[in-house]
Amino acid sequence: LTADYQRLDRDHHLHPFTDFKALGKEGSRIITHAEGVYIHDSEGNRILDGMAGLWCVNLGYGRRELVDAATHQLQALPYYNNFFKTTHPPAVKLAEALCRLAPAHLNRVFFTGSGSEANDTVLRMVRRYWALKGKPDKQWIIARENAYHGSTVAGLSLGGMAPMHEQGGPLVPGITHVRQPYWFGEGRLGEGRDPSPEAFGRLCADAIEAKILALGEENVAAFIAEPVQGAGGAIIPPESYWPAVKEVLAKYDILLVVDEVICGFGRLGEWFGSVHYDLEPDLMPIAKGLSSGYLPIGGVLVGDRVADTLIEEGGEFFHGFTYSGHPVCAAVALANLELMQSEGIVERVRDDLGPYLAERWASLADHPLVGEARSLGLIGALELVADKTTGARFAKSLGAGNLCRDLCFAQGLVMRSVGDTMIISPPLVITREQIDDLVRLARQALDETARRLAE
Ligand code: PLP
């Protein structure tokens, strides 16, 4: 069975973010079913999903209520659109629920099918807003190096991943990137006179201001960033970063776009990462945890400032997707939000699981391979190092991160590697016991990684 699937897969299936040739040689792992925080493969292995799929299965696998919501909606109205002047109950109810849960000034939502489409929508809304305000030169968008904002051309242009840019050109013009507040990777190396994380956070905010001045403040439309940068390496900014960034943006009247595709829906222990960091985004792209990944849906929450202008002064906005606010996806998303509320999932991450993970995860910092163990809510990272005292990294050619990832998988844990940064982002329904198990499996894989690297 496994070999059959692997053969068909190799012959016909091009995987996202995959070296096609290498996969053809190694063969895929076939995932057949899942429940709670565990996935199962075709060889009978049960694996703790420390990544919640792709940071999205917040409610865990196998929730009957979400299946029922989909079934009911498929029977009542499997598809209708929200174009022109029609809509349907799931889209309307979901829009209301989202605006109720979001910070007070976000009162409108534009639905999309994914996070990438949400960021395409952001780009268009930002530029349209400033054009309507009579400032068509305010076009530049400042994003961050190494950020991931999606795989559409606008998404990858907003993102700051060099390999994607190299394969994706020509990029959307008018987008530029500034450094990320990556303390372990860049800050601790002691740039500037004060090498504290807090000083580094301010340094990164200063880089935004310098970029604004270089472009001319009258030309800068928006700044886009995740509260905690996810795919870039689970980068938790120093506490000084966001307050300083807010100040800079306010000084030059620049819109703030907070990409909540990963951080939204409880990941950081609040409904949105913006709440944790006390941000007031003008635009907030969302996806993933919105439906716990059960069906594809995304959107952009729009603050009053931008929404009022688009509505009052904009006329028709020539933008939308066939599946914007798809009724079945919307019904599942609504049921997902209702379950998260009735089960107090977000509060549990904030008050219990987040602090518990922080304590348990930090215990890995004593491992010879670990230069830093950091977490916030239910997102965490380990920095693998060759020398614990100097923090020196392994040679790239050793592929320490990928080795550790593969050993984790072999031992029953999904952990992701971004270079030599190991990442977890488990379902928010994980228990304390399962967190213990996750940490135990991670340590086991670290031991084995160290052994292999020493060979
Ligand atoms: N924004 C962020 C922060 C993401 O992490 C992702 C996906 O990982 C996206 C946008 C793109 O979302 P999607 O894959 O649904 O298009």
TrEMBL record:
Q: Report the GO molecular function annotations.
A: pyridoxal phosphate binding; transaminase activity
CDD domains hit by this protein: OAT_like
Spell out the Pfam families in the cross-references: Aminotran_3 (PF00202)
Q: Which Gene3D superfamilies match?
A: Aspartate Aminotransferase, domain 1, Type I PLP-dependent aspartate aminotransferase-like (Major domain)
Q: Does the keyword Zinc apply?
A: no
Q: Which UniProt keywords apply?
A: Aminotransferase, Pyridoxal phosphate, Transferase
Q: By its UniProt entry, which InterPro entries does this protein fall under?
A: Aminotrans_3, Aminotrans_3_PPA_site, PyrdxlP-dep_Trfase, PyrdxlP-dep_Trfase_major, PyrdxlP-dep_Trfase_small
- Entry GO CC: cytosol
Which cofactor does this sequence's record say it needs? pyridoxal 5'-phosphate
- SUPFAM superfamilies per record: PLP-dependent transferases
Query: Where is the chain membrane-spanning?
Result: none
What domain of life does the native source organism fall in? Answer: Bacteria
What the record says about family reads: Belongs to the class-III pyridoxal-phosphate-dependent aminotransferase family.
Its name, as the record gives it, is Aspartate aminotransferase family protein
Q: Which organism is the protein's source?
A: Halomonas urumqiensis
